[in-house]
Amino acid sequence: MAILISDKTRILIQGITGREASMVTRHMLDYGTEILAGVTPGRGGQEIHGVPVYDTVKAAVRRHGCDTSLIYVPPAFAYDAVMEAIANGIKLLVIITENIPQRDAVRFLYAARQSGVRVIGPNSVGIINPADRVKLGAIGGDNVERCFVPGRVGVISRSGGMTAETSWMVKRAGYGVSTSISIGGDALIGSTIRDLLELFEHDPGTEAVVTFSEPGTRQEEEAADFIEKGGFTKPLFSYVAGRFTEGMPEGTVFGHAGAIISGGRGKPSAKMERLKRAGAHVVDHFDQIIDELRRVLK
Amino acid sequence: MGKLLEHHSKELIRKLGLKVPNGGVAAAPKEAERIAAGLGSPVVVKALVPVGKRGKAGAVKFAGGPGEAGAAAGELLGMTVGNFPVEKVLVEERLDIREEWYLSFTYDKEKKMPVVIASTRGGVDVEEITRAHPGSVAVRHIDPLLGMADFQAKEIWSDLGVGGKLILAATALLVKLYHLFERTDASLLEVNPLAVTSSGELAVAASVMSVDDSAMYRHPELSEMVQLGSERAWRPLTDLEKRMVEVNEADPYRGTARYTEMPGGDIGFMCGGGGGSLLLFDALVANGGRPANYSEVGGNPTEEKVYGLTRGILTKPGVKGLFAAHNITNNTQVDVLARGIVRALNDLGIDPSTFPVVVREAGVNDSAAREIFTAAGVEYYGEEITMTEAAARMVRRMGAAYPGYLRREGN
C-alpha cells in the first residue's frame, strides 16, 4: 500500500513535449509506470515515446479517463494549465514547474481547494510508490532502485534532491519506502507535511514517516500540532537542515524559496524543539536517521 | 521578491491618482537644498535604501528649510543603513498630519490567500499596533480570484470606526492600492503612515513595496525599479557575487549556480541542491569547519557554469580547501560537474595532494565522474559514504593539511 498513487492511477502529463518532460516520460515508462496521455497545445496527434499527445486536457480525459496530471509546463503557462486540469475533473495534480509567480500559485491553489483537488508542489521533483513501480516526475531519475526500494516507511521532503537522499538513508538502514513525496520547495504549496501525515496515518502499508525540513514556513509547527491532537500516531523521524542560517541577518534566503527566516519565526532550532515536544524522533545529524530507524522500528 | 526604493513605489501610487507628498531625489546636499527651496515648506529627508524601519535607524530627518535639508542630506549620504550605503535621499514636503493610519497588502502563507491589514493607529510598526491596539486593526483575507470589492473595502474602514467623507476616500484608496498590488505581482505593499492631513485628505506619507522576482517577465515596466535577487542578500552584492551572477546568467536555462560570500572562512563550498547545501553547510560547521561561502548548484548545469562557479569559489582570498558535494542526484549529471571542477582546479594550478579537496558526488553518470576525479588525484566518494560523513572527511583533511586548524578561534 501507499498514498496518493498506485498502479490504478490514470496519468496524464501536461507539457509532455518539452525537453525535460520528454526525458522524464521515458524514465517513467522504463520504470514500468503507465502514462495514458500527454497534452501540449498545437502538438495534438503526435506521440512521445508512444504516449499519445492531445491539444487539450478535455480530449485526453475524454479518451483515457485520466484522474492525475503531472505538470511540466513553463511558469508563464502554469496557471492556465492547472486551471484546465481542475476544470476537467483531474483529482491529483503534481506540479514540477519552478518559479511560478506567487499570485498565480495563490489563485490556482485556491481554485483547487474549492474543487477538492489535491495538489503536490509547485517546485516538486515528484512522487514515487516503489511497490507498484509508479513514479510521477524526475524522482529517482533513470536509476530508481539506487534510492527507492519498496518498504513500509513514508518519506516527505521539502527539498527535491533530498527526497532521494532521505529515501536512500531509509534503504541504508535496511528498510524501504511506501511512498516518497517531494512536496515542493516554495513557500506556497498545495499539500504540507501535516496534510501528508494525515494520509500516511490511514495507510496500513506505512509504519513510520521520515521528514526532511528546511528553515521557514510553519509546516513543522503545524505537523506538531497535528500529532498532539492525535492526528498522526506512528513514529515520525525528523531532520531540519539549515541551523547555520540562524546566525545570519534576518530576511536572508538560503535554500529554497520557502527557506526564509522572518521575524524570528521559521528557525530550525524552534522547529526541532516543537517537533520533539510533540513526540517526534528529531535527529541533530542526518546520519542519525539510520540508527534511530533501527532502534525504533527494530 | 525584489525591493523597490520608496520614490519608485510612490511614483506608481501617484499614477493611481492618490495623494503623495511632492518632492524629489537628491544625490548631493546641494541638490537636496534646491529641492527643499523649490518645495518652499518644511521637509522630510529620507535615506533611499531597501531596508525597513528606517525611522528607528535614524535614516529619516526633518528639516525646516533648504539649509537644514542640505545638512540633513549631508549626514544621511555618509551613512550606512542596514549594511546599505546611502547613495540617494528623498526630499519631500512635510505633510500637516492630523492622524496616522496603516494599510498593507501581502500574502498569508498559511492560509494561502492575499490579506489586507488596516488600522487607524499607524505610524509605528504593525507588530506594535497589533500589540497595543488589537481592537483597531482589521485583518481580512481576499478572494484571489474575485479580488477586492468596493463594499468589502468600505466594511473594513467602517469596522474601524471611519465614517463621513473619509470612508469614501479610504474605500477608493484601498481598492486602488489592492489593484496595484495585484497588477504588479507585488509580494508586499505597505503604506505607513497613511496620513489624514489637517485638511481631511488622505495621503501616502511613506510606502514600502516589493515585487515577485518570478513574475518580472511580465513586468518590463518595473525592470528599472527593481534589483533582481535583492532579497537574497542582507547587504549589497560583493564584486565576486556579481561575477557569479554573471556566470549563472550567461546560460540561464541550464541549471543554477548561486553563490553567497560568507564572512571569513577557508573551505570553498561547491554544493547543492537547495536542501542538500543547507545540510552540508551545517555538517561542516558541526565538525569544526569554516565554509568561506554558501552555494547552491543544481538542475543539471553546464560544464562552463560549474567551471565558472568553482573558479569563483577558489578565488576568494583565504580559501584553502574545496568541498564539492550533493545529495544523490535525480537528473544532474555528475560527470559534467566533475569536468567543470577539475578544469577549474587545473587552470588555477591547484594540486589536490597538498590543497585538500573532498568530493561526494553520486547519481547520474557517477562512474564517469569517479574516473575523472580519481585521474585528477582528487579524493572522491560516491554513494559509499553519506553526505555527513563526507563533510567530516573534509574537515579532517583540513586538519591534516593545516596544523592547528581545529583548535583555532571559533571552534
Summary of the model, kept short:
The complex is a heterodimer of chains A (298) and B (411). By secondary structure, chain A is α/β, with parallel strands linked by helices. Chain A has helices spanning 19-31, 57-64, 75-87, 102-115, 160-172, 193-201, 219-228, 268-277, 288-297, and strands at 11-14, 35-39, 47-48, 51-54, 68-71, 92-95, 118-120, 126-129, 134-136, 150-157, 177-182, 208-213, 236-240, 281-282.
Q: Do you know the CATH architecture of the largest domain in chain B?
A: 3-Layer(aba) Sandwich
Number of strands of chain B: 19
* CATH homologous superfamily (4th level) name of the largest domain in chain B: Succinyl-CoA synthetase domains
CATH topology call of the largest domain in chain B: Rossmann fold
* CATH homologous superfamily designation of the largest domain in chain A: Succinyl-CoA synthetase domains
How many domains is the backbone of chain B divided into? 3
The low-confidence parts of chain B are: none
Shape of chain B: elongated
- Report how far the terminal alpha carbons of chain A are from each other: 21 Å
Report helical residue fraction of chain A: 25-40%
Pick out the low-confidence regions of chain A: none
Description:
The complex is a heterodimer of chains A (298) and B (411). Chain A is an alpha/beta fold and 298 residues long. Chain A folds into 2 domains: 123 residues, Rossmann fold (3-Layer(aba) Sandwich), CATH 3.40.50; 152 residues, Rossmann fold, CATH 3.40.50.261. In chain A, strands 3-4-2-1-5-6-7 form a 7-stranded mixed β-sheet. Chain A has a 7-stranded mixed β-sheet with strand order 9-8-11-10-12-13-14, with helices on both faces. In chain A, helix 3 packs parallel to helix 4 and helix 7 runs parallel beside helix 8. The longest helix of chain A has 14 residues. Chain A is globular and about 55 Å long. Chain B is an alpha+beta fold and 411 residues long. Chain B has 3 domains: 158 residues, 2-Layer Sandwich (D-amino Acid Aminotransferase, Chain A, domain 1), CATH 3.30.470.20; 73 residues, ATP-grasp fold, A domain (Dna Ligase, domain 1, 2-Layer Sandwich); 171 residues, Succinyl-CoA synthetase domains (Rossmann fold, 3-Layer(aba) Sandwich). Helices cover 35% and strands 24% of the residues of chain B. Chain B contains 12 helices and 19 strands. In chain B, the strands form 5 sheets. In chain B, strands 1, 8, 9, 10, 11, 12 and 13 form a 7-stranded antiparallel β-sheet that branches. A 4-stranded antiparallel β-sheet of chain B has the order 2-7-3-4, with helices on one face. In chain B, helix 2 runs antiparallel to helix 3, helix 7 runs antiparallel to helix 9 and helix 8 packs across helix 12. Chain B is elongated. The relative contact order of chain B is 0.09. The model of chain B has no long low-confidence stretch (mean pLDDT 93). Chains A and B meet through helix 4 and helix 5 of A and helix 8, strand 16 and helix 12 of B.
